[in-house]
Amino acid sequence: MRTDTCIAHRGMKHVDDKDDAYYLAELQRLNILPKAHVYDPTLRPVRGLLRRRTMLVHQRTALLLSFKSLYARTTGQALDLSDVKKMEPAQAPKLYEHPANQLIARVQTEQMQSLQKGVAKIEQAVLACARELPIYEKLLTLPGIGRILGMTVTMEVGDVKRFKTDGHFASYCRTVDARRLSNGKVKAENNQKCGNTYLAWAFVEAANFARRHDEHCRRWYDRKAAKTSKLIATKALACKLAKAAWHVMAHRSDYDAKRMFPELAVKTMKKK
Question: Which of 43, 72, 83, 204, CA to CA, is 20 to 30 A from 150?
Answer without folding.
Answer: 83
